Here is the input.
Amino acid sequence: MSDAVVGVAIAIPEPWGSELEAWRLRLGDPLARSIPAHITLVPPTRVPEADLAEVESHLERVGSGITPFPVHLRGTGTFRPVSPVVFVALSRGISGCEGLQAAVRSGPLERPLDFPYHPHVTVAHDLPDETLDQAFDALAGFEAVFTASAFALYVHGQDGVWHVRRRFGLGS
Here is the structure.
């Protein structure tokens, strides 16, 4: 029996998703074309392919019980020196993301985390310090406001790209 590598995330809507993806590409991030702009709820996780229907049922139940919530992305942050990451920060929607991720990361997706959950949108990862500094400065004034009304189950494809398997509405 084979495994699928899945992740669960809130996609950043347009026009901001494309803008952040373009920044990642401009900064030379080799994963820029593989990972859509998102707020992670469940990081890459191996699950047996036979369990994907159960995972989808779980996510459908979770989504129906969570009310859409506002998200305000503003400014940048970093996980350095612990991890070479620069991200766009949430100034609103943190508790909504925390509640949603706790509910999603249960049942068939229960797993320990390597770090405490901190909702964010990665814009540079594993790049030279000068490039991380550039990302931090260039996106310091970034701002986006939207309603988180859905999340998606992503599957890591053979092509190295994260593909949406299914979207789940909040409160539906």
